[in-house]
Design goal:
The structure holds two protein chains of two kinds. In chain A, 0% of the residues lie in helices and 53% in strands. Chain A is built from no helices and eleven strands. In chain A, strands 2, 4, 5, 6, 9, 10 and 11 form a seven-stranded mixed beta sheet that branches. Chain A has a four-stranded antiparallel beta sheet with strand order 1-3-8-7, with no helix packed on it. The termini of chain A are far apart. In chain B, strands 2, 4, 5, 9, 10 and 11 form a six-stranded mixed beta sheet that branches. In chain B, β6 and β7 form a beta hairpin. Chain B is globular. Classes of the chains: A mainly beta, B mainly beta.
Chain lengths: 113, 111
């Protein structure tokens, strides 16, 4: 089976812009979770989608949003980018909900200048 | 909110030495997962522990879940350079039903 894929892999944006990141889970996986990874804060949970519904949400401002499509692919959007949003954004898919083994994608490295 | 701390933050060992990382939660966990992230890579699932006092082994790696289900440990016997990376625990609480990742322990192994 193909692994979790994320696009783009690298992105440079300017403060104030918005960005959309995409994640394609492993075939058959219905749960997609998003994480932000920074050197200072570690791996922080953004949100989880299961069957097109947001199942859980982390403690991030409303500028961070996401959605899941009927084919389980997911997107996350960050509006009004800030310098502090520079991070590695990881997507993980799971066969059922995220309480099960998660398979991570390679991540999207976002740099905000 | 739930917090999961890991100690140490960083450990440097010589190949052949043992290594242990400890994971402590502020709340009781339903289960705990362990992941390894190689430098420049993404986290890879290692194992999940569910029962109080559970011990599982994977070759040189031994995982334990505390009796009170608030702590866990990963022990690596006779480290190798291939063990280099950051090890994360991730705890699940029943009410939140979401994983909270620990702060991670970065392991460096030199010859």
């Amino acid at each position: 089976k193909a692994g979790v894929t994320q696009t783009p892999r690298y992105l440079i944006k300017t403060r104030g812009q918005q960005v959309t990141l995409s994640c394609s889970p492993i075939s058959g996986h219905r749960s997609v979770s998003w994480y932000q990874q920074t050197p200072g804060q570690g791996l922080q949970f953004l949100f989880e989608y299961f069957s097109e519904t947001q199942r859980n949400k982390g403690n991030f401002p409303g500028r961070f949003s996401g959605r899941q499509f009927s084919n389980s692919r997911s997107e996350m959007n960050v509006s009004t980018l800030e310098l502090g949003d520079s991070a590695l954004y990881l997507c993980a898919s799971s066969l059922r909900v995220s309480t099960y083994e998660q398979y991570f994608g390679p991540g999207t490295r976002l740099t905000v200048t | 909110g739930q917090q999961v701390m890991q100690i140490p933050q960083y450990q440097h060992v010589q190949e052949g030495e043992d290594f242990t990382t400890y994971c402590n939660s502020s709340t009781t966990l339903s289960n705990i997962q362990w992941y390894k992230q190689r430098p420049g890579g993404h986290p890879v699932f290692l194992i999940q522990l569910v029962k109080s006092g559970e011990v599982k082994k994977q070759k040189r790696l031994t995982f334990q879940f505390g009796e009170a289900k608030k702590n866990s440990s990963l022990h690596i016997t006779a480290t190798q350079t291939t063990d280099v990376g950051t090890y994360f625990c991730a705890g699940l609480t029943g009410t939140a039903s979401k994983l909270t990742f620990g702060t991670g322990t970065r392991l460096q192994v030199t010859l």
